[in-house]
Design a protein that fits this description.
The protein has two helices and six strands, in the order H-H-E-E-E-E-E-E. It is an alpha+beta fold. Strands 3-2-1-6 form a four-stranded antiparallel beta sheet. A two-stranded antiparallel sheet has the order 4-5.
Length: about 190
């Protein structure tokens, strides 16, 4: 079950507290963990990531379309060879009064239900990382056509390559470029 699905039963204050708690945990990881993407020489001065304020408007209901035979998608990366994913689902939702869609991907060798949802929106390169942002979606079962799920953009994050060029990160394919502003989740200052 994804964080957004678990949180769907929480009241507004509890949901906000959970989002803030997750952000604190991430900041602690980035500040102290040996696998942090923050270069070691910069960790002492690291004082946390920048986030948009949690906004329940960006927790959206999405309708799922699944693919019996997922199409392969080659994604460019920031630093290295392309990576191949399979488009396994499409999520349709409303944002800024318009119908939007985002594809969810899985690597061919991945047997889990976890979905990778990279995207760009009108904040990309201005308020958020120029390479786009990511969301992970972890349903507790295989999704089926017509399923309704909660998609929480407040959990959107910048990939590790935003903080260090030693990482090669997939770039969102054009089908996941949104024509609306999604001021939710992690911000990024170049």
């Amino acid at each position: 079950m994804s964080d957004s699905e678990r949180d769907s039963g929480l009241g507004a204050d509890e949901w906000r507290a959970e989002v803030e708690h997750q952000r604190e945990q991430k900041d602690d990881f980035f500040a102290d963990h040996p696998q942090s993407p923050i270069p070691p020489e910069e960790r002492e001065s690291f004082d946390g990531l920048d986030y948009f304020d949690p906004d329940p408007e960006y927790r959206v209901e999405a309708t799922v379309t699944t693919y019996d035979e997922p199409d392969p998608v080659e994604m460019e990366t920031t630093n290295g060879p392309n990576v191949r994913y399979l488009r396994v689902v499409t999520f349709e939702f409303e944002a800024s009064g318009e119908t939007q869609t985002l594809a969810g991907y899985r690597q061919e060798s991945d047997e889990s239900n976890s979905l990778f949802v990279p995207f760009r929106d009108k904040t990309t390169g201005q308020q958020t990382y120029r390479g786009g942002r990511y969301m992970e979606f972890e349903p507790n079962r295989e999704l089926e056509d017509g399923d309704e799920v909660v998609f929480d953009f407040n959990l959107a994050y910048s990939p590790f390559c935003a903080y260090s060029e030693t990482f090669a990160c997939p770039l969102p394919p054009e089908e996941n470029w949104l024509d609306v502003v999604i001021p939710a989740g992690e911000r990024f200052k170049e």
